[in-house]
Amino acid sequence: MVSVLVADDQPLIRAGLGALIRAAPGLELAGEAEDGNDAVARASALRPEVILMDIRMPELDGVGATRRILAQPTPPRILVLTTFDLDEYVYAALRAGASGFLLKDVSAEQLIEAIKMIAAGSQLFAPSVVRRLVEAYLRTDGSGEPFPDLSGLTGREVEVLRLVATGRSNAEIAAELFIGEGTVKTHLNRLMTKLGLASRAQAVVAAYESGLVVPGRLGPTHHDAPTA
């Protein structure tokens, strides 16, 4: 059974999501949270596997709650729910380490499948969707956070990061670089560890913010190093 915490400030939506989860095979409702602070507290106390996180809530929004929850030991995976697919809050949530996002008009069947996918370790968005978000909000969110430093990466790790950011799957990267898919995963895991990243989405964001990939241009930039 996958335990799910629902965080939404609207009682009707919260109740509806809770009822859907309780009725779904393989899912169980761990609890409900009415705002971001409540979500942080309940995530720590209830230890759900997945959190459905509303992005806009009073007191502490979904982005702030996501940051705090993912800083906890053995954190859950977070699936962001939003009204708009091009939203600066969603971009910030991806940067914070959320595992994906869904629009609130998603069907019940799609939501249930999404929760199970997230619990199994998948990312719930195509790289192209993440890229569109990054291109729309790159350097405009005003967070003041430093851009990633890629100087500690090997040439091969830089190339893998660039290809991840341009939308390639692990299999496509393996074919393009003439290496095994397992080797791609190893490079990706190592570069994510070096950069302190928790998700593939964060890797895409890092590639854009560092200047490795330029919006509208999918080819190599001056940051690329030899891959031999």
Automatic annotation (TrEMBL):
One of its GO terms (biological process) is phosphorelay signal transduction system. Keywords: DNA-binding, Phosphoprotein, Transcription, Transcription regulation. PROSITE patterns: HTH_LUXR_1, HTH_LUXR_2, RESPONSE_REGULATORY. InterPro entries: CheY-like_superfamily, NreC/VraR/RcsB-like_REC, Sig_transdc_resp-reg_C-effctor, Sig_transdc_resp-reg_receiver, Tscrpt_reg_LuxR_C, WalR-like. One of its GO terms (molecular function) is DNA binding. Residues 146-211 form the HTH luxR-type domain. Residues 3-119 form the Response regulatory domain. Gene3D superfamilies: 3.40.50.2300. The modification 4-aspartylphosphate is found at residue 54. This is Response regulator transcription factor. It comes from Actinoplanes aureus.
